[in-house]
């Protein structure tokens, strides 16, 4: 599966603070596999924290910690800050990709939307991204690409099928609207990331993006929640994991891939996340793994291969 997704990025380019190693190894080539694996673990943190913390309040603290860490690192390492105009775009991008996306998904699941339904809705993101990337960024989306995206969506549906229920009390017009909003948010965030932040230092750029996302969830928390967080071992572990591994690790990898590849192809990696999540749940939480899900995983992998591999040249 690693080989399937390495083609997403351009190995000829490197981020400003990630020079090639002396032996010529391209560390960026590991980003797709690492991103999928790490991003899939996000459910562990949300699952552990949900009973003890309000969603937007939890995210507000998480983003505040991440922003502080990145700010200190940027100052100590004397990273270059973007211009005022680009900084505003970074804040807006973060408001969508961090605040709108994570805030929306956490909120919808907290108020009862089944994780399977949320996963299926957010799996529309690669399709939306491809449509907008073609119109806004001028990326060429071939029929082969669209076919792969459709197959990927079908694969995700198979992976989440055992948890896919549309009769749950938590499926309401409000939770559906919020989850769709979250999907649109990360789509817009990815497009803006590619359009306006390609040449921004990731340290300062991420600082501004998490600040923008943090402002969104903080406003939401102050308006709708009581900032109730029970700080027990589960919540502390979840906060640490989601802050260090997801926010500082996986999201940085996502931004690197968007910077060095076509955003419409990078977004197809999200088809693999539910499959990896199901496997993790199988080993850590003894959740079942059905034949339909196994077939769905293969379908997702085939879809990503179809989208990302270069067609044979004559």
From TrEMBL:
<feature type="transmembrane region" description="Helical">
    <location>
        <begin position="145"/>
        <end position="162"/>
    </location>
</feature>
<keyword id="KW-0812">Transmembrane</keyword>
<feature type="domain" description="EamA">
    <location>
        <begin position="37"/>
        <end position="160"/>
    </location>
</feature>
<dbReference type="Pfam" id="PF00892">
    <property type="entry name" value="EamA"/>
</dbReference>
<feature type="transmembrane region" description="Helical">
    <location>
        <begin position="204"/>
        <end position="223"/>
    </location>
</feature>
<feature type="transmembrane region" description="Helical">
    <location>
        <begin position="168"/>
        <end position="192"/>
    </location>
</feature>
<feature type="transmembrane region" description="Helical">
    <location>
        <begin position="235"/>
        <end position="256"/>
    </location>
</feature>
<feature type="transmembrane region" description="Helical">
    <location>
        <begin position="291"/>
        <end position="308"/>
    </location>
</feature>
<dbReference type="GO" id="GO:0016020">
    <property type="term" value="C:membrane"/>
</dbReference>
<feature type="transmembrane region" description="Helical">
    <location>
        <begin position="88"/>
        <end position="110"/>
    </location>
</feature>
<dbReference type="InterPro" id="IPR050638">
    <property type="entry name" value="AA-Vitamin_Transporters"/>
</dbReference>
<keyword id="KW-0472">Membrane</keyword>
<dbReference type="InterPro" id="IPR000620">
    <property type="entry name" value="EamA_dom"/>
</dbReference>
<feature type="transmembrane region" description="Helical">
    <location>
        <begin position="25"/>
        <end position="44"/>
    </location>
</feature>
<feature type="transmembrane region" description="Helical">
    <location>
        <begin position="268"/>
        <end position="285"/>
    </location>
</feature>
<protein>
    <submittedName>
        <fullName>Permease of the drug/metabolite transporter (DMT) superfamily</fullName>
    </submittedName>
</protein>
<feature type="transmembrane region" description="Helical">
    <location>
        <begin position="116"/>
        <end position="138"/>
    </location>
</feature>
<keyword id="KW-1133">Transmembrane helix</keyword>
<feature type="transmembrane region" description="Helical">
    <location>
        <begin position="56"/>
        <end position="76"/>
    </location>
</feature>
<dbReference type="InterPro" id="IPR037185">
    <property type="entry name" value="EmrE-like"/>
</dbReference>
<feature type="domain" description="EamA">
    <location>
        <begin position="178"/>
        <end position="308"/>
    </location>
</feature>
């Amino acid at each position: 599966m690693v080989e399937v997704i390495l083609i997403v990025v351009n190995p000829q380019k490197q981020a400003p603070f990630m020079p090639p190693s002396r032996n010529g190894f391209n560390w960026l080539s590991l980003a797709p596999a690492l991103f999928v694996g790490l991003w899939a673990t996000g459910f562990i943190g949300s699952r552990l924290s949900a009973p003890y913390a309000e969603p937007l309040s939890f995210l507000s603290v998480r983003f505040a910690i991440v922003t502080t860490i990145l700010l200190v690192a940027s100052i100590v390492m004397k990273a270059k800050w973007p211009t005022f105009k680009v900084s505003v775009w970074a804040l807006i991008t973060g408001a969508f990709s961090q605040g709108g996306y994570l805030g929306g998904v956490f909120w919808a699941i907290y108020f009862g939307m089944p994780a399977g339904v949320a996963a299926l809705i957010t799996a529309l993101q690669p399709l939306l991204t491809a449509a907008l990337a073609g119109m806004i960024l001028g990326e060429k989306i071939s029929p082969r690409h669209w076919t792969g995206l459709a197959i990927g969506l079908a694969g995700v549906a198979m992976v989440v099928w055992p948890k896919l229920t549309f009769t749950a009390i938590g499926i309401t017009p409000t939770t559906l609207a919020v989850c769709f909003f979250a999907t649109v948010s990360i789509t817009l965030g990815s497009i803006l990331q590619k359009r306006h932040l390609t040449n921004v230092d990731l340290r300062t750029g991420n600082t501004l993006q998490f600040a923008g996302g943090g402002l969104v969830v903080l406003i939401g928390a102050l308006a709708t929640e009581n900032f109730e967080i029970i700080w027990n071992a589960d919540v502390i572990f979840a906060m640490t994991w989601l802050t260090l591994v997801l926010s500082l690790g996986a999201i940085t990898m996502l931004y690197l891939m968007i910077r060095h590849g076509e955003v419409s192809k990078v977004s197809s990696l999200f088809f693999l996340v539910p499959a990896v999540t199901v496997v993790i749940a199988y080993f850590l939480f003894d959740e079942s793994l059905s034949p339909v899900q196994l077939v769905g995983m293969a379908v997702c992998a085939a879809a990503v291969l179809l989208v990302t591999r270069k067609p044979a040249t004559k």
